[in-house]
Amino acid sequence: MAIAGRYLYGLIRATEDRDFGPVGLPIVGAPTPVHTIRVGDIGAVVSNFPTKDRLLPLRRNLEPHNRVIRDIMNETTIIPMAFGQVARTEAEVVKALKGNLKTIDAELTRLDGKVEMTLRVLWDVPNIFEYLVAEDPVLALARDEMFGRSSRPTQAEMIDMGKMFEERLAFARKRDTRRLVQIFKPHAAEVKENDPKDEKMVAHLSFLVRRDQMQTFEETLFQAASSFPDAYVFDYNGPWAPFSFVEIDLRLDSAQA
User: Fold this and answer.
1) The CATH number fitting domain 115-243, selected from 3.30.1490, 2.10.240, 3.30.70, 2.30.29
2) Residue 254's pLDDT is what?
3) Of 106, 89, 87, which is closest to residue 42 (Cα–Cα)?
4) Which residue numbers in the chain have pLDDT < 70?
5) Residue 227: how many CB atoms within 10 A of its CB?
6) Could you tell me if 105 and 42 are in contact, meaning their C-beta atoms sit under 8 angstroms apart?
7) Which of 148, 158, 164, 242 reaches 20 to 30 Å from 49, CA-CA?
């Protein structure tokens, strides 16, 4: 029985129909063929998927989604779609492409020949408060005054100290992030600053890098890492499809329902 639904992985340039083989999201345990649905020279990379099935972000679903995008990005530019984009019918995909051809073309041109690299910089220290105290004389003085007397600090004083710590933490992050952006900006087409998700995270940056600039970018990364104190750990990975830099929202009718 034919399955009407189409799962969307991304958008590419395609002057002819493409068949990427049985590498897509599984149906009843079996991987599905991945192919293109074309309008002009723009192709949506899809596989069949029953719309009645609930699609959960489980490893067995995320892995083929990411693998398809990764494999295609190794041979051509792809606008990657977020996990879980399912159209009810092929006609719905065609309608979405027709309504966005100019935007998709411009986006593919902007992302052409570029990949995403991510960088996380962390403080590798046992206690981030004590580390900042050692680095910041003002915070150290406030700490010493609070805990250097015989009486215990009041709750209000503890709250004020917490606020001062958060301010100093934010200042250190902003200072170091600005420095990192200035270092990498000449070697990246675009830079995106992401919010730190951990107290010991200094910066979380995404870079849109030209493939022909990858070697220079990585050399710059090692130079940057060596210029920071030993307490800073640089964790970078990629290349990835440019998820963080996609500026198109391909609206499917089913997503609006």
Assistant:
1) 3.30.70
2) 57
3) 106
4) 1-3, 148-151, 253-257
5) 10
6) yes
7) 242
